[in-house]
Amino acid sequence: MLAASACALLTLPQTGCESSKKNSGGFRIEPQAVTLAAADTPSQTFTASGGTEPYAWALDNQCLGSLNKTVGTQVTYTAEPVTGAVVLRAIDDAGVVSTAVIRQE
To answer: What is the pTM (predicted TM-score) of this model?
Structure first.
């Protein structure tokens, strides 16, 4: 069934600032890359630092997992039991974007 397998893809709205404010290295997410065993439905905590709080969080693909919240210094990602890769984005209050890659094998 197509409807049962459909997932929502989240796109971050462009306010005119994100595309012009590249991360100069001071704002970052830790860890910047992780590999999770998808079959175990694991979770991973990510922390943002160095930018202007508050931080907003989003996933580029919600089919692979979910976040416990969308605003704050830390978020926890919980994987679905599927394989693939997802990009986690944090946007600080100044519009600067930092990313982390989550691979699920």
So the answer is: 0.79
Exposure class string for 57-89: b at 16+ Cβ within 10 A, else e: bbbbeeebbebeeeebeebebebbeeeeebebb
Does some domain include residue 89? yes
Residue 91 lies in a domain: yes
Average pLDDT over the chain, rounded to an integer: 84
Dihedral through CA 47, CA 35, CA 42, CA 50, nearest 10?
A: 0
Domain of residue 39, residue span: 18-104
Q: Could you give the number of structural domains in the chain?
A: 1
> Residue 1 domain-assigned?
no
Give pLDDT tens digits for 21-72: 556 569 999 999 999 998 888 999 999 999 999 999 999 999 999 999 999 9
